[in-house]
Amino acid sequence: MTRPATRADVARLAGVSTAVVSYVVNEGPRPVADATRERVLRAIRTLDYRPNASARALKRGSTRMLGLVLSEIINPFHSECIDALDAAAFSTRLFHAAGQHPW
Fold first, then answer.
1. Cα distance between residue 67 and residue 54, in whole Å
2. Smaller CB count within 10 Å for the chain: N or C?
């Protein structure tokens, strides 16, 4: 079994610093040249890099996730509420649905 790719692995493959990888993944705080961004994104895809959600939550002080508890989901009203909540959360980048990444 191989270990998950790290930010350092991505940086090494892309030929950049770990800070530049962070700038690309987090879309800031500093700008990254388009050619450099593409190298980093290519390395992310090649290595199947996924940021560590626990580390990110600790650094931000928030998981940026939303939980919802319902007694039933069959009720059409609840389904509409879930759809509206999902759309609002996604549009405000509160969270990315499983498998969706900005890169």
1. 17
2. N
Q: Are 90 and 97 in contact (CB under 8 A)?
A: yes
Torsion from C-alpha of 30, 36, 40, 46, nearest 10 degrees: 170
Polymer length of the chain: 103
How many CB atoms sit inside 10 A of residue 24's CB?
Answer: 23
By the 10 Å C-beta count (0-12 exposed, 13-18 middle, 19+ buried), 21 is classed as buried
**What's the predicted TM-score (pTM) here?**
0.60
- pLDDT tens readout for residues 70-97: 777 788 888 888 888 888 877 776 655 5
On the CB side of 58, CA atoms within 13 Å amount to 5
Q: What Å distances lie between residue 18 and 9, 14, 101, CA to CA?
A: 9, 10, 19
